[in-house]
Amino acid sequence: MRVLVTGANGQVGWELVGRGVQHDFEIIALDRSALDITDQDSVKREVSRSAVSLVVNGAAYTAVDRAESEPEIAFSVNRDGPTHLASACAEAGIPLIHMSTDYVFDGRKRGPYLETDPVSPIGVYGESKAAGEAGVRTYLQEHIILRTAWVYGIHGQNFVKTMLQLGQEHELVRVVADQYGCPTYAADIAETILTIASYLQDGGKIAWGTYHYCGRGVTTWHGFAEAVFAAAGQYVGLTVRKVEPITTAEYPTPASRPANSVLDCSLLEETFGISSKLWRESLFRMLKTLFSVEESKIKN
Fold it and tell me: Which site from 13, 46, 52, 64 is most exposed, i.e. has the minimal number of CB atoms within 10 Å?
């Protein structure tokens, strides 16, 4: 089965490319330089000529704060790009798996967000992602929108890598402790997408629509940071001695963040049998892989 992956150099896209062969998929990996999803003609041409059976959209504008001053770019990538892909897929008669985010919600709900909860983004990034979801639904019936949250991985920049750097440079690290969510390993997201793709390959009946996937268990950014330092200590020397909890108000940013980013993932498990991984266990796996890679680079 041939699968076209956009955003192939992103955290999840990179994992999809590396893991696709393990699922017997032929991956057509396209980063931004190979395919600009904001160019409708290029998207249509690429989807048509690639002769793929599935498109996975991992391309996105993810600079949450910068989006506040660059709304045109954010909407071009996050709204227009997915819409172009959905339209091209509809014309080619193939399905699309599109990645989305917890930022489509305002974070004011008490309890985990369901797929059926109304979207109500509080910033440009979330608004652009919600608009992208709407575009996919409008132009293509055979789609899966997979929302996730707090993504980290061994490729690219993310919260875990930032904490590792700070933990080696400072004795005191201050981290927000009043935003709640579920850390999600990019490799686990990739495996989830590939499992859904396997259903397609095997001819299984797909319940198209929107699903949630994130790590199992709830924490704060502060709790996440503490877990990173506790787990990383066995691999690298850390100078951090204290992780101080602070409020969102004490760490102002151009874009507002949802106070509650917890997603209910039970629908995905009921439909596809895919259960979320415990976030702490996934963090251990990520760090072990990360430092194994770093050690290998040093030796070579």
Answer: 64
What is the signed CA dihedral for 182, 183, 188, 194, rounded to 10 degrees? Answer: 60
Q: Which active-site residues does the annotation give? A: 125
pLDDT tier for residue 292 given thresholds of 50, 70 and 90: confident
- The whole-angstrom separation of Cα 48 and Cα 61 is 24
**Residue of 188, 208, 243 lying closest to 98 (CA atoms):** 208
Helices (H), ranges, the chain: 11-20, 40-50, 71-75, 81-92, 124-139, 159-169, 186-201, 221-232, 266-272, 279-299
Residue partners of 252: CB distance under 8 A and separation at least 6: none
Cβ atoms of residues 136 and 82 within 8 Å: yes
Domains and CATH numbers, the chain: 2-157+184-216+262-277 (3.40.50.720)
pTM: 0.95
What is the mean pLDDT of the segment spanning 51-80? Answer: 97
The dihedral through the CA atoms of 72, 151, 15, 216 has a sign that is: negative
pLDDT of residue 300: 44
Distances, alpha carbon 116 to alpha carbons 65, 66, 148, 263, in Å? 27, 29, 15, 11
